[in-house]
Amino acid sequence: MTNRVTRISGSGSYLPDRILTNDELAAQIDTSDAWIRERTGIAQRHIAAEGQTTSDLGVEAARRALDDAGLTIADIDLIVVATTTPDFVFPSTATVIQARLGMDHGAAFDVQAVCSGFVYALSVTDALLKTGQHKRALLIGAETMSRILNWEDRSTCVLFGDGAGAWVLSAEEASPEAADRQPGVIGSYLRSDGRLKELLHTTGGPSSTRSSGYLVMQGNAVFRHAVVNISEAMTTLMRQHGLTGEDVDWFVPHQANQRILEAVAKRLGIASGKVISTVANHGNTSAASVPLAFDVAVQDGRIKRGDLCLLEALGGGLTWGSALVRY
User: Fold this and answer.
1) What is the CATH superfamily name and number for domain 184-326?
2) Among 246, 247, 252, 280, which is 20 to 30 Å from 237 by CA?
3) pLDDT interval class at 1 (50, 70, 90)
4) What is the pLDDT confidence band of residue 182, given thresholds at 50, 70 and 90?
């Protein structure tokens, strides 16, 4: 088997037009802009329009990633979508996007790991490309979290937003240089603990209540697990590849809470100036947050080709994980 590396050929993202500010929320529930900012760092979030679906957001992000890569859908033979808010129970949102993009070949499927979805899906897609089963993939994180929120619960509805991010990933022959120095996916580290389900979950599902239910969360407990587990995942991954926080050019975390971002970066010795944070403008977009933040930093010129990026996320399950990529 040829020695392959999975490279990021293109990046794209999409946010719904509707912006919901903290002040607007404060007019509807018992909260304030100061209360939300102090506890989360969030100032606003984007909300999908009536009738706008997860696949709508994913399609737009995918098109932008393809344009960035200089490719068309004919060049893609795999679509993997990370989402916990699919258009339907079935078919998968990936196949819906496949059809809408005009792709009549290859394969498409969803990965469900809630906020960790993009990191999990990256690991799966990387494996499929490196083994030669596929040559080029669209990896998409897309969510309409607003559809599973209780808008009277100020502990959750202020946190989440809608959006999508996408990468074009290409399997290429590895160069003779050291694996950690060449562009591509270097490695990933995935973990979960189903015993912690009650900390972050929804109140329903097709087989239990015949409905999706609402998102509920024990915020303080999730915060503690996030800082400890995410830090462990990233430390382990970097140690496996002989790297430290000082080697990382950019830390691209799941955008859940500004305090979590800062606490994790501090534990790993990553300078605050290396942290990509979009949580103030996007809120928590679950599986879309990592590719959204990554694309923002690519577009504004911070992340450049050759930069080493450390990704992380933690979500319901609990699931968590990290990934190292050289862009």
Assistant:
1) Thiolase/Chalcone synthase (3.40.47.10)
2) 280
3) very low
4) confident
